[in-house]
């Protein structure tokens, strides 16, 4: 199954996606009501952590997919799929706002990793865009597994460079 096939399956099963996209902000809203003032305590902060990751991963994916489709594929914003490209970003923003309403992000375990993920994805997309626009083509007889190792080393170098800058 390719990514395009997965997005087509998601487009055909709109009810499951809508349930997921409505359930996350609704859960964050009810957790804010029932756990008012106790968001930093043990059961609530782990619920917020799960909600953050369930909201941010599809939202970041949809955001980077939108950037890719508009910059590299030159697609129009009018052709964007509402269920897989627009609603996950809106759901992520609403869920983050509802969670911020009850708890500070510093009290949620593991939330600093999402910011790093966003930064690394932004740098990689910018890097790929620059390579694509400069029309640099490389013909290599390097085996694919060496390329994967090289790519992982570049990701690690970017991560260490970001940690040094911040």
Short description:
This protein is mainly alpha-helical and 166 residues long. The chain has 6 helices and no strands.
From the structure above, extract its key features.
166 residues, mainly alpha, globular, single chain
Structure, described:
This protein is mostly helical. It is 75% helix and 0% strand. The chain contains six helices and no strands. α3 packs parallel to α5. The model has no long low-confidence stretch (mean pLDDT 81).
SSE blueprint:
Blueprint: H1 3-12, H2 14-34, H3 42-71, H4 82-100, H5 112-134, H6 144-165
The number of helical runs is: 6
Largest sheet: none
β-strand percent reads under 5%
Radius of gyration: 19 Å
Task: Please write the string of helix (H) and strand (E) elements.
Answer: HHHHHH
Number of strands: 0
Distance between the termini: 38 Å
Counting helices, strands and paired strands, the structural category is mainly alpha
Q: Helical residue percent?
A: over 70%
Q: Looking at the structure, what is the overall shape? A: globular
Low-confidence stretches: none
Mean pLDDT across the residues is 81
